[in-house]
Amino acid sequence: LSEGHSGEQHISVALADDAVLLREALAASLAAAGFEVVGQAGDVAGLLAIVDRSSPNVAVLDVRMPPTFTTEGLEAAQTLRKKHPRMGILVLSQYVETRYALDLLRDDPSGIGYLLKDRVTRVSELADAVRRVAAGGSVIDPEVVARLLGRPREHSPLDELTPREKEILGLMAEGRSNQSIADALTLELKTVEGHVRQIFSKLGLEPTAHDHRRVLAVIAYLRST
Amino acid sequence: MHAMNQRQRLILLAVAGALPVLLGRIVLATTPVQLHEAITPTSQLVNLALGAIWIAVMLFSYGRAPGEPFWKLVLVRLWADQIWLLFYIPTSLTWTASNFDELADVLTAHIIVSFPSGRLRDRFDRAVVWFIYGYVLLVNVVGMLVFRPDWMGNPECTDYCPDNLLLVAPNDTLVAVIDQASSLGVPFLGLLLLAAVVRRWRLSTPIARRVMLPILVATPLFIVLRSAWYLARAFEVSFVTNTLADWSFAAIEFIIPVGLLLAVLRARLARGAVADLAIELAHGVPIGELRNVLARAIGDPTLRLAFPAPDGDGYVDELGRPIQVPLSDTDSARITRIENEGELLAVMVHDPAIDRDNPGLVDAVGSMARLALANERLSAQVRAQLEEVRASRARIVEAADVERQRIERDLHDGAQQRLVALAMRLELARTSVTGAQALIDETTAELTAAIGEVRGLARGVHPTILTEMGLAPALEALAERSAVPVTIDAPDKRFPPPVEATAYFLAAEALTNVARYAEARRARIVIEERDGALVVRVEDDGRGGADPTRGTGLRGLVDRVQALGGVLTVDSPDGAGTVLTATLPLT
After folding, report:
1. Mean pLDDT of A71-92
2. What is the full DSSP assignment across B132-177?
3. DSSP H helical ranges for chain A
4. Pairwise CA distance, residues B74 & B108, whole Å
């Protein structure tokens, strides 16, 4: 990996979306954010060809593509994962469906993200997600997490959590690392780690060192209660 | 008689009835004995006419009910009627037998009391008839045992001197007493017969009364006139000439057979009504008129027609009003069930006299009614279904229109307004130098909101997760969006798309209602595959009292469910939650 213009790693991106205008805008945004867009495709086959040829760090793809315009992006992600296990994959979706996010991450959550398409209008958030999957992290859109957290429950250990702990739980569900959470909340890393232990204890979850395993545990927990 | 058809049997019976009458005429025509002065050509004609009427009574009653003994009694009476003519056959045996000619009158009494079946119905009737038989027989037999006619043993008697074969001990005093008893007995027996007839009338139902009306009139009329005739003659009333006496006597003779004939015809008319009924039904009878038509055919104005209530409990009339139907036959009402292939279509509640007077009539009318009812029901079902389809289609169109309006309004008021605002802000940002950053930030926020709105809109129109992943994941997603906690119990399995969509929108609408009205703390959605159908159950623990007929949401769901040939039920007792159950056929 080479160094980027802002002192960061150089990240190459392949892009797939059937809506040409949006794809071009996306490419422009990614380029502006310092990524190298190595190729654009209008469908899954085109994307696979680019990936085979250019071996980008990250593939960014729309969930809706030809031929059925439903959830082709999810299946394509599985295919890409098998052929290029080290490549980051970011699926852009119109659907606020926790099930889709969970299915996408279930087998191997490292380097995979499920981001709502709205997010692309905030270039910083898009860029953050691309960097996280490129680094092998997980990304789950905050709105999907909000849906999980906001689901009505009768009696739940979640009621025991303090507002701050809930906030940190949400960030964990987004796939963030402790450092990332500390940065986002401007807290000490130690403080965050303390909160995380507390949360796991209150929810009765096994503490796990791996962030990407942690995201699965948290999401599974939130979905099942 | 089995090999014969009805017509041949009637002809044979007519011959059997006419034979004694003809034999009687032959006897009179060939007798060497000098005829009584009352036997004139006119009286012969009168006798023939009377015979013809009795034969008619016999034939009509046979035609009406061949299995009953009434016509046999009439046939016996036709023969007994000629007993007196044995007097004109010059032998001692026939002479002796001819003295029992009153048997015909006793049989007449028997026939009257046993009308219309020929059977005596109760102890009173039996007592009356057997008393009359006994009295007349006793008087006759005892009289014959002691009666010695003048000519017996009289050497001057030369041309016609038959012996009384029953003579045991001649006793003129006893003969005089018996004669007296016989004369006194006639009005007494007449009154007894009248009492039996009046009593029978009083015990009869309206129909039976209608049928026996001619007998009720004829019997006292006959008794009074006949008594008057005898009295007039006994007192030798001056105006009673011989001719008048003969004619009036003959006329009085007609009263009873004519009365019986009219009564038999009345009973028989009801039978002919079945044919009329068939014609009437063939022209089509509205269900509301059916009772009147059947009542006419059976001849029972009190007839009631009851249909099993649609909810399976009790009976209703043709207008759907609940009516009471006795569970079994009673003294005043008999129940005839009209069934089609084991399914009860209706019951007729009618006068028991109809079965008695016209065996088989009710069954015949009932089977006619069965056809009419089966047809009527079939066409009513088709009509109702067509009507339901028409109404359902109208509602679907209406619901689609309403839905389009809602989407149009949401797009217009929501997304479009925001996009217009965005365009304006961008325009402002382009021309503004200072504060462009803030404007663009606001614009981006607006834009995000607009995108979110369009997304929600699209999801509401049709959730992709349902078509992509099936019912269970779609319901899970629905539960996440619900305002009350929802547990889902559904198999992770795919079903036909229309079934999945209906089940999903049913659950969605139900959860909306739960959130809006039910004041529930939790809800539960259970999906089960049972007997080739998908059963969708949505339960909540709210306040209940949901009315499925109110609110277009539920109404639309009923249409959806019915379009698939399914059934939707709502169980929502006050204060005990609501259970909405849809059964959707999978084939």
Report:
1. 92
2. HHHHHHHHHHHHHHH---TTTT-TT--S-----TT-SS--HHHHHH
3. 20-32, 44-54, 72-83, 98-106, 123-134, 142-150, 163-173, 178-185, 189-203, 211-224
4. 8
Residue B213, φ and ψ in degrees, nearest 5:
-55, -45
Summarised one tens digit per residue, pLDDT across range B448-498 is 777 777 877 777 777 888 888 899 999 998 888 888 999 999 999 999 888
Is B207 in contact with B354 (CB distance < 8 Å)?
Answer: yes
The CA distance from B65 to B253, in Å, is: 26
Whether chain B has a CB inside 8 Å of the CB on A82: the answer is no
CB contact under 8 A, A95 and B459: yes
**CA contacts within 13 A on the Cβ side of B455:** 15
Look at residue B242 in the predicted model and tell me its pLDDT.
64
- C-alpha span between B19 and B28 (Å, rounded): 14
Find the helix or strand (DSSP H, E) in which B370 lies. helix B361-410
CA distance B585 to B587: 6
Sign of CA dihedral B504, B509, B512, B517: negative
Asked if residues B582 and B495 have their Cβ atoms less than 8 Å apart, the reply is: no
Can you give the pLDDT at residue A7?
A: 47
Higher pLDDT pick, B522 / B380: B522
Residues B41 and B343: their CA atoms lie apart, in Å, by 65
Asked if B348 and B336 touch (Cβ cutoff 8 Å), the reply is yes
Q: Are B166 and B145 in contact (CB under 8 A)?
A: yes
pLDDT greater at residue B228 or residue B275: B228
- Looking at the complex, does the CB of residue A165 fall below 8 Å from at least one CB of chain B? no
pLDDT reported for residue B382: 67
What is the number of other CB atoms lying within 10 angstroms of the CB of residue B122? 10
Yes or no, beta carbons of A94 and B455 under 8 Å apart: yes
Give the ipTM of the model, two decimals please.
0.76
Measure the CA–CA gap between B266 and B299, rounded to whole angstroms. 10
Cβ-nearest to A154 among B476, B481, B485? B485
Q: Which residues lie below 8 Å from residue B208, measured CB to CB, with a gap of 6+?
A: B351, B353, B356, B357
Give helix then strand counts, H and E, for chain B: 18, 10
Question: For residue A3, what pLDDT is reported?
Answer: 39
Q: CA-CA distance, B259 to B219, in Å (whole number)?
A: 8
Under the banding of pLDDT at 50, 70 and 90, the label for residue B273 is: low
Phi/psi for A190 (5° steps) reads -60, -40
Put simply, the answer to whether A151 touches B479 (Cβ < 8 Å) is yes
Report pLDDT digits (tens) over B221-248.
988 888 777 777 666 665 555 666 667 7
DSSP structure class, residue B517: I
**8 Å CB contact between A119 and A125:** yes
**Residue-level pLDDT at A6:** 47
Q: Cα(A30)–Cα(B553) distance, rounded to whole angstroms?
A: 46
B119 residue type, one letter: R
Compute the mean pLDDT over every residue in chain B, rounded to the nearest whole number. 82
Is B448's CB within 8 Å of A147's CB? no
Nearest to B33 by CA among B95, B80, B123: B95
The confidence band for A149, taking pLDDT boundaries of 50, 70 and 90, is confident
Per the model's pLDDT, the better-predicted residue between B200 and A58 turns out to be A58
The predicted-structure confidence for B413-427, as pLDDT tens digits, reads as follows: 667 667 776 776 777
| Between residues B315 and B48, the one the model is more confident about | B48
The number of C-beta contacts closer than 8 angstroms across A and B is 52
Q: Specify whether the backbone of A41 is left (phi greater than 0), alpha (psi in -120 to 50) or beta.
A: beta
Give the mean model confidence (pLDDT) for residues A140-152.
88
Closest residue on chain B to A225 (Cα): B487
